Amino acid sequence: MMVNYSMKTISHKFVELIPDQIENGIIYISIKYCTAIHKCCCGCHEEVVTPLSPTDWQLIFDGKSISLYPSIGNWNFDCKSHYWITNNRVEWDRKWSGKEINAGRRKDYSNKRKYYTKKKS
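Given the sequence above, the corresponding structure tokens read:
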């Protein structure tokens, strides 16, 4: 698979509902449904869904641009691309090894379990 790491910026659109057709280079953000979606910045055309929640991604809107935290690691896609979206800029990061991906998944699971266990108390 040819991966295109040339995408340097992404624009954003705030929407109530995510449109049926997702355009390259645009991240669609639904505050109502606490989610953002975009096509993978590598050019593979996979749709990347980033739920907005205390245990998933956080969105920062400064009135002009958006940032998502943490990074976006597309571990389930063939491309395995890894990048940050900061102030509408795509900042490429190195690919993770299988061992790093598995450790990250365990950490995510543990963080979710701790968060939701505390909420029930």
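The first strand starts at residue 11 and ends at 14. Try to locate this feature in the token string yourself.
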